Amino acid sequence: KDVKDYLHLLDKPLDEFEAPGARNSTLGEDALWHVLYSLGQDNTYLNKRKAYWGLVLAVRDRMLEKWTAVQRKYYANDDKRLYYLSLEFLPGKFLRGNLLALGLENEAHEFLHEHDLSLDEIVDEECEPGLGNGGLGRLASCYMDSMATLGLPAYGYGIRYSYGLFRQEIRNGHQVEQPDNWLHEGSHWLIPRPHNLFPIRFYGTVNEWLDDDGMLRHDWRGGDLVMAMANDMYVPGYRNGHVNSIRLWEARPHKEFVLSSFNAGDYIGSVQEKISDENISMVLYPSDDAPEGKTLRLKQQYFFVAATMRDMVRRFKKLNKPWDQLPEKNVVQLNETHPAIAIPELMRMLLDEELLGWEEAWCICQKLFAYTNHTILPEALETWPVKLIERLLPRHMQIIYEINRRFLEEVRLHFRDEPELPSRVSLISAGPEQRVRMSHLAIVGSFSVNGVSSLHTQILKDRVFHDFIRIFPDRFNNKTNGITPRRWLRQCNVPLSWLLSEHLGCNWITDLTQLKKLRELVDDVEFRHDWEQCRLTNKKRLADYIEKVNGITVNPHSIFDVQVKRFHEYKRQLLNILHIISLYNNIRRNPDVKMQPCTFIFGGKAAPSYQMAKDIIYLINCVARRVNSDPHTRNFLKVIFLANYNVSLAQLLVPATDVSEQISTAGYEASGTGNMKFALNGALTIGTRDGANIEIGERVGDGNIYLFGLCEKEVLALRRRGYDPWEFYKNDSELREVLDMINSDQFTPGDSTAFSSIFNSLLTGGDPFMVLADYRAYVETHKRISHEYVDRDLWIKKSIMNTAGMGYFSSDRAVKEYIDGIWSLEPDV
Ligand code: GLS
């Protein structure tokens, strides 16, 4: 069937707020109007570009109408507002999702059809904003979608990076980074607001003065000023007439030119200053799960946080309420510690600008802020040198010292017999270089601290923040992550959405728990047949893409086994490739082997400075080259590396995946959200007992997930006992063969040292992520998978049971838990 013929069956009907006719022009008429009057182009004929931009502007008009109405309502109802502060957002492409949410898909199809175009072609014109690294940024975008769909008075806040995460190319097997100039054509999804401007100060000095009551006051002045200018991105709720926004700050020079030097003839010098100010919002730091200890990063953090706090206070002041009502009317969620400098910044505003007393100001902060932790990797917990903060933000350092002095005084009072405790929980670490521990600042300055899966929160309580649990026993809580079913099922998997809506009705789109009704259908032969057909359609689409982009033909009936995520040693892409090499060896040894053909697909970026991760990418590509060209194995085994993994590619991969690889060392992956996307679309997970995998297992049922390897407690115990990877090397001949191949020129003819860094890390380096310890269990589990896949009835039943069990992992559920447990907000629809 043609998509446009069945869309009306697929989705929830529009409510009266959305009814067509609320406008007296159609989407197509408006698009044509914009082609002429906004783009200044001939609208008597359309090409893809004109159609795309015209549609964007017509859709945007409709969102703006709703957004302004919603903003008016917030003031009229005196709503409490949520500020979601995140250095990263990864929204993915907008057009399809916005059409879907606003109920305009049909109109768009009709309009494009009249001009001999299709939606599929014109979304290619759209460039995806890569304003995030991975899971953390994508989570922020899923939550913004749910907040709008639940009708919450919520604002996202972040940075409008001129360059998003680098574009990844693979050349001769190596990752090469290219700039991502996503704004080169401009983006009409982003509305600049040149009048929403705030000056942001850096450096300078702090003066003291006495107020009328003889109280010592502080005044931060001098230094450099940079302007923060707002750019708004709109987030429509799913068919509820609600539109929220994400405000992204862009750095602008404080003065266009330094006039004096301009007049003195130093034109270049005056422009230089302008350029260095704009640098603040120039580029996203390309590291995930790791801190970037660079001054510019701290500048970015303060820049966006300072502008956001001013915006919040500006709105609050319109209400004419006393300051103690600030936390009754607002709540600020800190996405990781990246925005934690907001705490001393708000203190500074309240103390130095609004002249409140310390206790009053501190009480407001502690009721306003809530902090989400997303990682426990010790090397990833942010700290900043005291010296750096002192220079860049001198007043903030004074405030941090005072917060710490008061906090430690309390700790000493309540834990008299633990003299070591204060130095462990101090906001400032001792040592040759004193550093501010941003997580400690975030914990002390917030009323809520949450982890992102049950296991992760438990680890926070037991290990990482154990001391704080005793000091603030009620502050810690868990909010297991979720994903939006709109993008991660309805949008990315139209065939399956169609099947679901046909059997369950379309309420699953906003109430994902409805999927549990699928369990009643697993024994229905016809349903299972349709299910398999949907999967095959998606796999064929992916195979076409691979053929087009990588030039490799893959068999859509082979097992599509996919690991896509950032490259990191703890995620263990290495374990995956070691297994593939051993499979390759086995097939070569037994040319007559009867096995289900497998296509192993990888994707993901390595931080440009993370050499080991880049070496692993190179290894995968070298193995792929060898395996794919070997006539003995070609029909059984393919290895594909898809370059430049991003949200759009994820939308293509997720519905086409049979086996989802979630194989981090237990205890290291805070939650994972890719794991949820795959299982929701009917993939079976091979995974460790880590992050949200455990909860996924509980919901889809033991028999429908392949969990293997050491659990978190076993990882700790083995490390305590003394882990020796050489033992595994000696005792497992298959593994030894694989490792020796890596340590030779088998995959890089003529160069036997290409992967010695990897070999050494796994053996002499002590194998910090216990790849060898989990190797055997992983290989055996893969054998089971390969065996069970052949039993199509069994496999499809398991696939259905996965989708059926995933309702819990909707970001709607997660956001509702934040509302009830942390934010105390009222939906406003
Ligand atoms: C991350 C974690 O590594 C992921 O496990 C988690 O799912 C995600 C969202 O909570 O946050 N932390 C991080 O710094 N990057 C991530 O993806």
From TrEMBL:
Q: What is this protein called?
A: Alpha-1,4 glucan phosphorylase
Q: Which reaction equations make up its catalytic activity?
A: [(1->4)-alpha-D-glucosyl](n) + phosphate = [(1->4)-alpha-D-glucosyl](n-1) + alpha-D-glucose 1-phosphate
What's a single GO CC term here? cytoplasm
Give the enzyme's main class according to its UniProt record, as a single word. transferase
Q: Does the keyword Cytoplasm apply?
A: yes
Q: Which InterPro entries would you find in this protein's record?
A: Glycg_phsphrylas, Glyco_trans_35, Pyridoxal_P_attach_site
Q: Which GO terms describe its molecular function?
A: glycogen phosphorylase activity; pyridoxal phosphate binding
* Cellular compartment(s): Cytoplasm
Function of the protein: Allosteric enzyme that catalyzes the rate-limiting step in glycogen catabolism, the phosphorolytic cleavage of glycogen to produce glucose-1-phosphate, and plays a central role in maintaining cellular and organismal glucose homeostasis. Phosphorylase is an important allosteric enzyme in carbohydrate metabolism. Enzymes from different sources differ in their regulatory mechanisms and in their natural substrates. However, all known phosphorylases share catalytic and structural properties.
What EC number(s) is this enzyme filed under? 2.4.1.1
- Cofactors named for this entry: pyridoxal 5'-phosphate
Coiled-coil stretches, from where to where? Answer: none
Q: What is the lineage of its organism?
A: Bacteria, Pseudomonadati, Thermodesulfobacteriota, Desulfovibrionia, Desulfovibrionales
Task: Say which domain of life the source belongs to.
Answer: Bacteria
A biological process (GO) of this protein is: glycogen catabolic process
UniProt key word Plastid: no
Sequence positions bearing N6-(pyridoxal phosphate)lysine? K677
Sequence similarity: Belongs to the glycogen phosphorylase family.
Against Gene3D superfamilies, the record matches this protein to: Glycogen Phosphorylase B (3.40.50.2000)
Q: Which UniProt keywords apply?
A: Allosteric enzyme, Carbohydrate metabolism, Cytoplasm, Glycosyltransferase, Pyridoxal phosphate, Transferase
